[in-house]
UniProtKB/TrEMBL annotation, chains A, B, C, D:
InterPro entries: HotDog_dom_sf, Thioestr_dom. The lineage of its organism: Bacteria, Pseudomonadati, Pseudomonadota, Alphaproteobacteria, Rhodobacterales. It comes from the Bacteria. GO terms for molecular function: thiolester hydrolase activity. This is Phenylacetic acid degradation-related protein.
Length: 145, 145, 145, 145
């Protein structure tokens, strides 16, 4: 681990500007990172449910941070591909949590997946997997996943 | 065709509230629908490029509207799955256009795809395909794709 | 559970003919199903590694059987969408195991995911998620996932 | 173009051994490659329709060949991710054709897509997109897509 939850939250605040306030890294271990989306009006669709792009963004930030937790803040990993399945309607008025893990951290590509939950619920609202291109040299120090 | 470009834009304004101003249906034919994202500050990531969730949202709205153009505004189609490949960095300061077509319009499922372009560019910035669950009865009147 | 591992293996033998001999359900619980692909010459690519279509087929059969374990053998679930990430080269000469779980079992759609491993290895060789259309009435008896 | 249809078919025969007989490159232009799957008993599922893994394999080989047509036979491109939507049941007794194009041919990643048709039909049976990792140096000579 190159960055723990506190380091990741500090990174968010410094480099992600106004977006940072929407997110909070709850925990960051080698096996799993948990990211919270503080659901606000801007994330809602007509009808009160969390929008698809908001869920997409949560999964993207979560897996990105899981990579940074392993290779440090110098990296400029770029999302190259993403798949998402929307499973259930999120609860109105509840935050979303992304349970995230890396499946591969190679020299050129990283792949992670996330299950999204409405806080307090057992059944996931969405499943996502994303691939990132790692800039040359950036993954040097990290133990491969 | 149940709705043309003007009808779809009127639908956006009536039912999508503040989001509607970001989008404009440029054309809507049986073979292809073209949707514009008026890129503004809210769509940008640090660095000036359009964010992944904004591109995801553009493709989602575009394919959704392509379905509505065929089955009319009564439908409550729900996105069940999405895949997106990010191919190139969008141009700074240019709108995005989604060239969209339906591949299937069944009684239960619809599948569409979109290529996203920075306005004025030939090479696409992203490719997306999305699946929608169609509520029972809604696709009755439409000719199947 | 409508079908356990023994019932699923008997189903494979009866309805999948010559393909059945390639597969073996190792275990089937509500939480997880484990399916083995007995890797043979027909599954190999030049170079000795398991081919992409063989891994795709393993994930497809595994998630399909996970659905049947819940709704019984009457169903005619149809694969409507699939995504797969190839993470590492499979070991030469080792069987593949698919660790499978259902994420959603609705009245119309089921979604499952699988991690594929070369037997005896900790790091997965592939990740897959697949969506199935459930014929009307088939999921009636099953507790929803 | 580094390889035309004849060169690609010769490559298939030399390097893909017994698999080669299943495939035939019908045409290969910069804009589009067309690959035929000669559907035989081995590609069929119980019921007479072409199996999912066979369609997956067709799309994979087609996009792979589209890359080789641009960077030549030296390459060892590896499939890293794939998504496929199954849209309709293929016709019994008809070959499948994959209408294929490259969306990106970068130094490290290539992305292509394919629409699959039963020969003689207008509506596609499947849509696929796939990503390939390009070995360092291999794409040097090719004009980027």
């Amino acid at each position: 681990m190159m960055m723990d939850a506190a380091a990741l939250n500090a990174f968010l605040e410094r480099d992600f500007g106004q977006v940072a306030a929407q997110f909070c890294v709850e925990s960051a271990e080698v096996e799993q990172l948990m990211l919270r989306l503080r659901v606000g009006v801007m994330h809602l669709r007509p009808g009160g449910t969390v929008s698809g792009p908001s869920m997409f963004g949560l999964a993207d930030v979560a897996i990105y941070l899981a990579i940074l937790s392993r290779i440090g803040p110098v990296a400029l990993a770029v999302t190259t591909g993403a798949t998402i399945d929307f499973l259930r309607k999120p609860e109105a008025g509840a935050d979303l949590l992304a349970e995230t893990r890396l499946l591969k951290l190679g020299r050129r590509l990283a792949v992670g997946e996330a299950l999204l939950f409405s806080e307090g619920q057992v059944a996931p609202v969405a499943r996502a997997s994303m691939t990132y291109s790692i800039p040359p040299g950036a993954a040097q120090g990290a133990a491969p996943v």
